[in-house]
Design brief:
The structure is a single chain. The chain has 423 residues and is α/β, with parallel strands linked by helices. The protein contains 13 helices and 19 strands. The protein folds into three domains: 107 residues, Rossmann fold; 226 residues, pyruvate-formate lyase- activating enzyme, CATH 3.80.30; 61 residues, Nucleic acid-binding proteins (OB fold (Dihydrolipoamide Acetyltransferase, E2P)), CATH 2.40.50. Strands 2-1-3-4-5 form a five-stranded parallel β-sheet, sandwiched between helices. It has a five-stranded mixed barrel with strand order 15-16-17-19-18. A four-stranded mixed β-sheet has the order 7-6-8-11. It is globular and about 55 Å long.
Length: 423
């Protein structure tokens, strides 16, 4: 039985698709290689959102070739879609498969024939939570973003298909599902929008929690917030990409909101969802970002109740409008600004965690450490350790926060009524 390993870079959507790629290989008669086991086939599921991610994709392919010269090395996904010839030349990969071909790799390798008729294999996750791909592609075409070129136009999976997959994943023991997409707020299956889909998923028997990945401002974010307010299963965490706090740069990058509109949205979320986690994406070094524009970002981040910042320096992507724009800050300046925002984010995340001292929380245990404590995440997307015996992955434990160590909550299980838990 041939063996295969898949290494994944990038977003949660890539993670969801990796699970489908693995399931396809298993369905075709392959065995997933154990950790550090040499594999006959090595798939690098690439990312190209930043130059660093694209470079790491190529590095992993070269490394796989050196470690196992006789293995079949495959580059698949976003970078392979955008730059197939360049990647093949740089890495010597045996196969470079774009978005459509990455789901039929066993067939492309030969010897297995086309994929079996009937339903596709259920995505294969080796984690407690699973990712549910609801949507792909994006039509927004922000000036700095390569996603439309890498993933194509926006399109959505049928709601009935997603509910069926959620039922199958739950039957396999996944207690939390993360609904994800390239532009999730644009999900539409006829008259069924994202909130309708969430309501249908919430009715899946045995599912403990739902979580959503990032949602673009100017889509259905307020409807999602209103639904989250009364939901029993949807986790209270929102990731609302900001990118920059400068109105001038927001307009230049083609973002669909102003600084004031973004501020009002976060305030709306904080008012409707007290104690919820709110995360955002920030890019430093965009073309035209002077110190005044950067300070606009700093002041807005300081003002708003963020619990998580994802910060990275801008890197021009081939074919995007921003790549040709002038006045891009030096790389060193972009990195220094990113470091300053990252430190600000660390302080805000620690302050957010401290607010849970003495409060009741719910933790989904994802692993059990050597000391017997369970480790997992709260609904608000804070890491937690749960004391006591009998912990096991997949348990949902209610307890009180007895201590906070940096951003990690130390939770003691308790007999709590549902009303004590802030959902």
């Amino acid at each position: 039985m041939p063996t295969v390993c898949v290494k994944t870079l990038g977003c949660r959507l890539n993670q969801a698709e990796t699970a489908r790629i693995k399931a396809g290989f298993v369905q075709a008669g392959y065995r997933l290689a154990a950790k550090d086991e040499p594999a006959d086939v090595c798939v690098i599921h690439t990312c190209t959102v930043t130059a660093a991610a694209r470079a790491e994709s190529a590095r992993l392919a070269r490394s796989a070739r050196r470690r196992r010269p006789d293995a079949c090395v495959i580059l698949a996904g976003c970078a392979a879609e955008v730059e197939p010839a360049a990647l093949r030349a740089e890495t010597g990969a045996d196969v470079v498969a774009g978005q459509a071909d990455k789901f039929r790799l066993p067939e492309l390798l030969g010897g297995t024939g086309p994929a079996p008729a009937g339903p596709a294999a259920v995505p294969l996750f080796e984690t407690t939570r699973a990712w549910l791909k609801a949507q792909d592609g994006c039509d927004f075409r922000c000036a700095y973003c390569i996603v439309p070129a890498a993933r194509g136009p926006a399109r959505s999976r049928p709601a009935a298909e997603l509910v069926a997959e959620a039922e199958q994943l739950t039957e396999r023991g996944h207690r939390e599902l993360v609904v994800t997409g390239a532009n999730l707020g644009c999900y539409a299956d006829g008259s069924t929008g994202l909130v309708d889909l969430l309501a249908r998923l919430e009715a899946v028997t045995g599912l403990a929690r739902l979580r959503i990945s990032s949602i673009e401002v100017s889509t259905v974010e307020r409807d999602v917030i209103s639904y989250m307010e009364t939901s029993g299963k949807l986790c209270r965490f929102l990731h609302l990409p900001l990118q920059t706090g400068s109105d001038r740069l927001l307009a230049a990058m083609g973002r669909r909101y102003t600084r004031a509109e973004y501020r009002a949205l976060v305030r709306f979320a904080a008012d409707r969802l007290p104690g919820a986690g709110i995360g955002t994406d920030l890019v430093t070094g965009l073309p035209g970002e002077d110190e005044a524009a950067f300070q606009d970002t700093v002041r807005l981040v300081e003002e708003l109740p963020f619990s998580n910042l994802h910060v990275f320096p801008y890197s021009p992507r081939p074919g995007t409008r921003a790549a040709a724009l002038p006045d891009r800050p030096a790389r060193e300046i972009a990195r220094e600004r990113a470091a300053r925002l990252t430190e600000l984010g660390r302080r805000k995340r620690a302050a957010f965690a401290r607010r849970f001292q003495g409060r009741a929380v719910e933790v989904l245990v994802e692993r059990v450490d050597s000391d017997g404590c369970g480790a997992g995440w709260t609904r608000e997307y804070l890491p937690a350790r749960v004391s006591g015996e009998g912990r096991a992955p997949g348990q949902v434990v209610e307890g009180l926060v007895r201590a906070v160590k940096e951003i990690r909550l130390c939770v003691e299980p308790a007999q709590l009524s549902t009303s004590n838990i802030e959902h």
